[in-house]
Each structure stands twice: as structure tokens, then as C-alpha cells.
Design brief:
The protein is of the alpha+beta class. 31% of the residues lie in helices and 22% in strands. The N and C termini lie far apart (68 Å). The site of flavin-adenine dinucleotide has 40 residues, from helix 1, strand 19 and helix 8.
């Protein structure tokens, strides 16, 4: 057998996990096509970042989600170490705050047992008061799941792709898939050119229905459900010891109180079905709903004035109600990894394994490569170094001595390294290094990052964007513009 050309559409957590998983096999030529200027700017950027334990999904109604979340959780426990991805494992609580919710929480324990989620147990109000004193007085009972964690979703996307590339995969950004042709020569047209393929894997997130339709598979659609969040100043620290959920409802897991892998308290999301898949705007009403909802669980929330950012994510809601991870008898050479709503982040490594098994079913040989290197080193963070390490880093590279982002203490050396690893935009640098994620939300550092980007990429400052086309940061020097006005 010769080389098999695999083209993956979409550089989100799912596409990147698939690329990394397949890069362990020999004789696969892997290309990821991403329409944006950077990977990880779709659904994978704005979410709750939880590696769910795996009890939420009913195996009778959504068997794929139910199975893959538990397996994904297990895989992440190893992957975060191997790929050096920031992650904490505090465990989660689903809390009943009134008597009506008691049966729901008890039923979750039964489901956890059915889904083989390890270590779950019910905590009564006395235990809750000791273990999670932040909870509302009325907290009666909770399901505790020790394997739940919080990951940095951006780092996860970049780490998977960096490792896939180190093992031979190719990434093409700014390449929106516009047509798919099957025939003697299978081809996919993009905004940057045409690519031949033997197998096309569709991991296009919110737009996976459009890509699937281009390939001729039209048996599902994907809707959009927005969720808004408030993020609090990191200096305040986490408000809770665990990830705290309310009892779930028909609209989903509800508004929770959690924290990021770096320690910002975060609350949200609400849930609103929307017509426009690219509507990431937050609203006053939505933010009120989130704040008031979170306060029912944890009454002593930080004041709203300590919120440093509001943001929204959009969930891809598949018409089937479950992940669509399928190949098609009548269409060899096409695999859907579509409809990946929550818990898609938690499930991503397991989705990648399932896609690999679908390739085997299609007759693609998967022979492990002796050259596969599973590890990836993170960009060393100056802020996490001790004094001796800082001295040594500055001695080796004086750019470690120049702080670019004061809030998060990110140095020029880290920004340069992010660019070397593929960042081409302000957001690309921000999500790789955290420059701009602190209290001032990039008011101070974004133009310094812009200068470094222009210098390192050897381009004019005016061509640097925040996150790709349509987001230019500058249009020229003020003196030049004034001269032009005259
Ligand atoms: C509010 C909210 C909260 C969530 N919370 C959690 C959670 O706590 N835990 C959890 O496990 N999951 C959570 N999820 C779900 C999780 O974020 C998603 O399941 C996951 O990120 C989906 O990844 P993806 O790679 O499929 O999609 P994406 O990240 O959107 O990646 C798809 C990529 O395809 C690209 N693309 C689209 N069309 C084309 C085209 N035609 N050509 C080329 N490229 C294209 C896009 O630009 C995008 O980069 C949440 C989601 C939301 C919105």
C-alpha cells in the first residue's frame, strides 16, 4: 500500500485531536484545512473548559456522547501531562437546592454507574457544608465526580496541533472549504487552492452540516445555541473548591460556578437558541441572567465590578441529538465528526480514536510509526519560574527580561516563541501566551505585541490583525493620516 492522503476540515479541538491521533501511524499524509487565520478560534475557544466526568448523557438517547466522554476524560488525564497542557482536577458537584431536584441528582448517580464513571458518590448537606462552604444554605444533596477537571482549551488545541505537526501533519490556515468532489481523483476546493484526498474528515464545528452537504450527506443540520459568561479577576482566586453545577434541565447543564485552569472564577453559561451561528455578542439581559443564576448556587459571588470580561460561546446543536461520527457505505473516503456539542472538548481524544477505527473499517492500514514522538513541550512561562530560573532564562535570552504584558507577566521571549510556533495575529499570541488576558484585557500590551508580530513576521504593522481578515488593528501612522487629510 502507498501513502493515504487524509484531509481534515477544521482546526478546532476535534480536528486537531484527529490530526494528532493519526500522526502516530506511518504512510498517512495528513493535512488540516482551517478557514480562519489561526486554529482554535471556533467553538473550541469560548466554552466552560470542563473535562466532564461523563454522567450527563443518557446512553439510550445519546450513546456516542455517553461512551466517548468517559473515554475522553480518561485519555485527557494522561494527555495533559504528555503535551504539557494547563489543567486542574478538582472534581465536580451537581447540587440539588430544593426537594424537587433530589430525584434528578440521585438518578445521575445511577447513570454514572451505568456509564462506568469512576468514583462518583452522593454528598449530603453536612458533607457539602465542610467540603464546599461557598454553596447556598439550601444545598441538600450533590453528586460528586472526582475525575472532572478544567483544562485550558486554547493550549489544548495548540498542543495537539504542534505535536501533530512535529509528527509530520500539515496545517493550512485561511483555507475555507467551498466544494468537495468524489471521482477518479477526489478533490476539495478551498479559498487557497485545491487539495486531492483519499479520505476527507469533516470536523468543521458549527459549519459541519455545510461541509457534509458539500460532500452529499444531508441527513442532519446543526443549530446554534449561545451561552454567555462572566470572568473575574485572577487576583480574587477561585470562589469554590469544585466545579459547581445546578441540577440539569431540558436546556442543558445550567449556569455553573467554576474556575479556569489559571484560577479565574468563571460563571455561566446561559442557553439561548439563535439564528446566526456567528453571533458571539453578549447582552445586558444575558449577563444579568448568568449573574443571578450563579448567585442561586453560590450567594457570595464576587461583585460584578470585579468582572474583567464577558464573552459568549455558540454550541453546535445537531438535529440528531448525538455526536455524528460516521462513515457512509455509499461514499467511501468521507467521514463526519460533526455535531460535536458539549462534551466535545472532554470527548475529543476519544472522538479521534473512533475516527481512526472508521479509517480501519474503510481499509486504511494503520501501522504505528516507530518515529512517533508523543511529547510536546509548552512555552516556558516566566510567571511560573522561580527567581533562579528567571535569572537563568534572562541570561540565555535577554528577551525574557522584557515584560510585554504586565497583568500576566508575559515576556517578549514568550511572544517570540508563540510566533515561532505559528501565531500570526494578536489573538494567536494572546491564546498561546496569555498576553492580554489579564485585568487590563490587553489595553497596555496589544500594540507592543503588534510591533513584535510585525518585526518577527517581517511585515508592515498595518497588516497585523486581531484575529484574521476584517480585524485590522491600525490603518496607518497618525502623522501620515494627518498629512493625507491636508
Ligand atoms: C457555551 C459552551 C460551553 C461548552 N462547555 C463545554 C465544556 O465545559 N466541556 C466540553 O467538553 N465541551 C464544552 N463545549 C463544547 C465544546 O466546546 C465543543 O464540543 C468543541 O469545542 C467542538 O470542537 P470542534 O473542533 O468540533 O469545533 P470548532 O472548535 O468550532 O472547530 C471547527 C473549525 O472548523 C473551521 N471551519 C468551519 N467551516 C470550515 C470550512 N468550510 N473550511 C475550513 N474550516 C472550517 C472553523 O473555523 C473552526 O476552527 C461547550 C461549548 C459551548 C459553546
Amino acid at each position: 500500500m502507498g501513502t493515504t492522503r487524509i484531509v481534515i476540515v477544521g482546526g478546532g479541538i476535534v480536528g486537531c485531536a484527529i490530526a494528532r491521533e493519526l500522526s502516530r501511524y506511518q504512510d498517512l499524509d495528513i493535512t488540516v484545512l482551517e478557514r480562519e487565520a489561526e486554529i482554535g478560534m471556533g467553538v473550541s475557544k469560548a466554552n466552560t473548559a470542563i473535562i466532564h466526568a461523563g454522567f450527563d448523557d443518557d446512553p439510550d438517547k445519546a450513546p456516542v456522547k455517553a461512551a466517548l466522554c468517559v473515554r475522553g476524560n480518561e485519555l485527557w488525564h494522561t494527555l495533559v501531562k504528555v503535551l504539557e497542557i494547563p489543567c486542574v482536577w478538582p472534581g465536580s458537584l451537581v447540587v440539588a437546592t430544593d426537594d424537587d431536584q433530589l430525584p434528578t441528582v440521585e438518578a445521575l448517580l445511577a447513570r454514572a454507574e451505568r456509564n462506568n464513571v469512576p468514583g462518583c458518590e452522593l454528598w449530603d448537606s453536612d458533607l457539602l457544608r465542610t467540603k464546599e462552604p461557598s454553596l447556598a444554605e439550601g444545598a441538600r444533596l450533590a453528586l460528586f465526580a472526582p475525575t472532572a477537571g478544567v483544562i485550558s482549551p486554547f493550549d489544548a488545541v495548540f498542543a495537539l496541533m504542534e505535536n501533530a505537526r512535529a509528527n509530520g501533519a500539515r496545517l493550512v490556515t485561511g483555507a475555507e472549504v467551498t466544494a468537495v468532489r468524489f471521482g477518479k481523483e477526489n478533490e476539495v476546493d478551498t479559498t487557497t487552492g485545491t487539495f486531492g484526498f483519499d479520505v476527507l474528515i469533516n470536523a468543521a464545528g458549527l459549519h459541519a452540516d455545510t461541509v457534509s452537504h458539500l460532500a452529499g450527506i444531508t441527513d442532519f443540520t446543526i443549530g446554534a445555541r449561545k451561552g454567555e459568561y462572566l470572568l473575574f479577576d485572577k487576583a480574587l482566586g477561585p470562589l469554590t473548591n469544585h466545579i459547581v453545577f445546578p441540577a440539569p434541565s431540558k436546556m442543558g447543564k445550567g449556569i455553573l460556578v467554576t474556575f479556569t485552569a489559571e484560577g479565574h472564577t468563571m460563571i455561566g453559561p446561559n442557553a439561548q437558541d439563535i439564528p446566526d451561528k456567528d453571533d458571539f455578542a453578549t447582552t445586558v439581559m444575558g449577563i444579568d441572567e448568568v449573574y443571578n443564576g450563579a448567585r442561586k448556587l453560590v450567594p457570595k459571588l464576587y461583585p460584578r465590578g470585579q468582572c474583567i470580561r464577558t464573552f459568549a460561546g455558540v454550541r453546535p446543536e445537531p438535529s440528531t441529538g448525538d455526536f455524528i461520527i460516521k462513515s457512509y457505505n455509499g461514499l467511501p473516503g468521507f467521514i463526519n465528526a460533526a455535531g460535536i456539542r458539549s462534551p466535545g472538548l472532554a470527548s475529543a481524544p476519544a472522538i479521534a480514536e473512533r475516527v481512526a477505527s472508521l479509517l480501519l473499517d474503510q481499509g486504511v492500514e494503520l501501522n504505528p510509526s516507530a518515529d512517533f514522538r508523543p511529547e510536546r513541550k509548552a512555552i516556558p512561562r516566566f510567571t511560573e519560574m522561580n527567581a533562579a530560573e528567571r535569572d537563568a532564562a534572562i541570561k540565555e535570552d535577554p528577551a525574557y527580561g522584557r515584560v510585554v504584558c504586565r497583568c500576566e507577566t508575559v515576556t517578549e521571549a514568550e511572544v517570540v516563541e508563540a510566533i515561532r510556533r505559528g501565531a500570526t495575529t494578536i489573538d494567536g499570541v494572546k491564546l498561546r501566551t496569555r498576553a492580554g488576558m489579564g485585568r487590563c484585557q490587553s489595553g497596555f500590551c496589544s500594540f507592543r505585541v503588534l510591533d513584535i508580530l510585525a518585526r518577527e513576521l517581517g511585515v508592515d504593522r498595518t497588516s497585523i490583525t486581531k484575529r484574521g481578515s476584517g480585524s485590522r488593528m491600525t490603518i496607518g501612522g497618525t502623522k501620515d493620516l494627518r498629512r493625507g487629510d491636508r
